[in-house]
Design brief:
Order of helices and strands of chain B: HHHEHEHEHEHHEHEEEEHEEHEEHEHEH
Number of domains of chain A: 1
Helix content of chain B: 25-40%
Distance between the termini of chain A: 34 Å
CATH class of chain A: Alpha Beta
Strand content of chain A: 25-35%
Shape of chain B: globular
Number of strands of chain B: 15
Oligomer: heterodimer
Largest sheet of chain B: 7 strands, parallel
Number of strands of chain A: 12
Shape of chain A: globular
Strand content of chain B: 15-25%
Order of helices and strands of chain A: EHEEHEHEEEEEEEEHHH
Radius of gyration of chain B: 21 Å
Strand order of the largest sheet of chain A: 2-1-3-4-12-11
Largest interface: A-B, 36 and 31 residues
CATH topology of the largest domain in chain B: UDP-N-acetylmuramoyl-L-alanine:D-glutamate ligase
CATH architecture of the largest domain in chain B: 3-Layer(aba) Sandwich
CATH superfamily of chain A: Class I glutamine amidotransferase (GATase) domain
Largest sheet of chain A: 6 strands, mixed
Structural class of chain A: alpha/beta
Radius of gyration of chain A: 16 Å
Structural class of chain B: alpha/beta
Chain lengths: ~220, ~375
């Protein structure tokens, strides 16, 4: 299995590189050999990846990454996009105080929020039927188009900053504002992505420390 | 008149806090002073030679070293350890002296520069820290740049950090120091802070098409550690005031303390953000290591950055993890193949060891242990 970590030198401000590490580790526990492939801004994005990861960034870095990704087809791929990486998948977003054209992968737009949303966040995912926890730190408000399914309903925190929801799910493309890294704090979500990539159910992943950590974070937020 | 009265009350408050509550009394004195006389900082700065020091890492120890250098030139007032907000600056300035060498928090620096009209400002580095409060590195750099453009001070900085080079470009007087690049690229320096283009790095050397580069500097040195860089930068600052070069024991420029806990002889080092964890991890020599992670305000309330630090150098060592967020750290290590025990508190962590142990402690943990 190939895990493509896209532009981590740009989209690596908030620890989201950990998502790749957790996916590879849990794939290993399930008997699947996984390789993390870091693709920098100057390189072509491989088309033979199994999971594609985008992370959070500062404004200027977000714009550069988005520009470099123009033309790459995310459709029919398994994608996890966090924060700035999530925003660029929309039709438009704001960076450096200017409206920017997004990649148009998810029908949504991001505008400047009323204030910066910073703090612990907990959402309920209907898809997984569990609570997901993380930390959010963003100034954008993301408005999903009618019919776009959010990733979760906000219990604590702000998420998209509109509609009481966080993130978006379109097929196998998942967006969220949760850092943490999100897959470290929510191993069930990691397993879902692995299953989507493998196209079948994952052999049971046994990692008590992961479960203990996830449970603990859920208990205190 | 108002200032004299305010200082009298502030000193009284500081004395009461110190004597009756057993606290340092610095914070309360500065706080009272600023309430009674809001422009006390600028009044107390008049006619004095002020030197300010700011950075993500190394402010406290470098300020201490620089204050020592300056004391060979005249009387010096300096910040009390870590007291680097406006109230700490106000409190320090209450002591009369020819020179004042003050440590200042990154976000408070523009205000303090404006109020104190310093002769020199020393900037050591700027990396990710407490993102819940600072938000972004570029945001801090932009504030510093605006500050530098309005100040008559001489700005001295390590331009191997592109953010500092960007800040210095707008200062009318500056000393641009390079150490021939850091060990590698700046961890937050993928984008040119000046023009927004992708910044290509050749090891620690960057050169943007807009002209921002560390290949051209006013002074060039070589240094193998952050402590050595800071020692040289402090000396350059002192030299600006005619003070001859001082050599110092580099270990005094690392926030380290030694203390025995039951049978464990602990060498405790302060770690507070990705850059300082990397620096501290690179210096771990012992096979016995305790890591303490908290996430209170000054530690940074978000622990996501753990994933941006490479802990693989700890593989094979006897590692015990503790602290309020010890579980976060234990899981991070687990994913990187570092086997670590999780201890409920520091006492039970030290009980697992005898002899020398290296301790890397989050900010609040460090001060709880060292006092």
């Amino acid at each position: 299995m190939k895990i493509i970590r896209i532009h981590n030198e740009l989209l690596g401000t908030y620890g989201d590189r950990g998502n790749a590490d957790v996916l590879a580790f849990r794939a290993g526990l399930a008997g699947v050999t996984a390789h993390i492939i870091d693709v920098s801004y100057r390189e072509m994005i491989p088309t033979d990846g199994d999971i594609y990861l985008l992370g959070g960034a500062e404004d200027a870095a977000q714009v550069l990454s988005c520009t470099a990704l123009k033309g790459f087809d995310f459709k029919n791929r398994v994608v996890l996009a966090v924060c700035a990486g999530f925003q660029i998948l929309g039709n438009s977003y704001f960076a450096n105080g200017v409206k920017q054209v997004g990649l148009g992968v998810i029908d949504m737009e991001t505008i400047p929020g009323s204030s910066r949303f910073v703090g612990d966040i907990k959402v309920h995912s209907d898809l997984l039927n569990i609570e997901l926890t993380g930390f959010e730190n963003h100034g954008g408000q993301t408005n999903l188009a009618y019919g776009i399914t959010p990733l979760g309903r906000v219990i604590t925190g702000h998420g998209n900053g509109a509609g009481g929801v966080d993130g978006a799910v379109v097929g196998n493309i998942f967006g969220t504002y949760l850092h943490g890294a999100v897959l470290a704090r929510n191993p069930e979500f990691a397993d879902l992505l692995l299953e989507r990539a493998l196209g079948n159910e994952l052999p049971r992943v046994n990692d008590p420390l992961a479960d203990e950590y996830a449970k603990y974070r859920r208990s205190i937020i | 008149m108002r200032l004299t009265f305010a200082m009298f009350v502030a000193r009284l408050a500081g004395w009461a806090s110190h004597t009756l509550l057993g606290k340092s009394g610095e914070t309360i004195a500065g706080r009272v002073l600023l309430v009674l006389c809001p422009n006390a900082i600028s009044q107390l700065s008049t006619g004095r030679k002020i030197i300010l020091v700011s950075a993500t890492n190394g402010k406290t120890s470098t300020t201490r070293a620089l204050a020592g250098f300056m004391s060979t030139a005249g009387s010096v007032t300096s910040s009390k350890s870590g007291s680097n907000l406006a109230r700490g600056v106000a409190s320090a300035l209450m002591t009369e002296s020819e020179y004042a060498v003050l440590e200042v928090d990154e976000l408070h620096l523009p205000f303090v520069v404006d109020a104190t009209k310093p002769k020199a400002v020393l900037l050591l580095n700027l990396t990710r820290d407490q993102l819940h409060r600072m938000h972004e590195v570029k945001r801090v750099a932009d504030r510093w740049k605006e500050m530098a453009s309005k100040s008559g001070a001489t700005f001295i900085a390590d331009i191997d950090d592109p953010f500092l080079n960007y800040v210095l470009a707008s200062a009318s007087n500056n000393v641009r120091v390079s150490f021939g690049g850091m060990a590698g690229r700046h961890p937050d320096g993928a984008v040119c802070p000046s023009c927004g283009a992708y910044l290509d790095w050749d090891g620690g050397i960057y050169s943007c098409k807009c002209g921002l580069t560390n290949q051209v500097s006013d002074k060039k040195f070589s240094a193998e550690s952050a402590a050595m860089r800071n020692q040289i930068l402090a000396n350059i600052t002192a030299e600006y005031f005619g003070v001859p070069w001082h050599e110092v024991d580099l270990s005094t420029l690392e926030r380290k303390a030694s203390k025995k806990f039951i049978n464990a002889d602990c060498s405790i080092r302060l770690t507070k953000n990705p850059a300082s964890w990397r620096e501290a991890l690179a210096g771990v020599e012992s096979e016995k290591v305790i890591l303490i992670l908290n996430s209170r305000e000054v530690d940074g309330i978000d622990t996501s950055w753990l994933w941006d630090v490479d802990f693989s150098g700890l593989r094979g060592k006897h590692v015990v993890v503790t602290g309020e967020r010890g579980l976060d750290l234990a899981y991070r290590l687990h994913i990187q193949g570092v086997i670590a025990e999780l201890a409920p508190d520091f006492d039970s962590a030290t009980a697992k060891f005898a002899g020398p142990v290296e301790v890397l402690a989050a900010y609040t943990a460090f001060f709880e242990l060292v006092g």
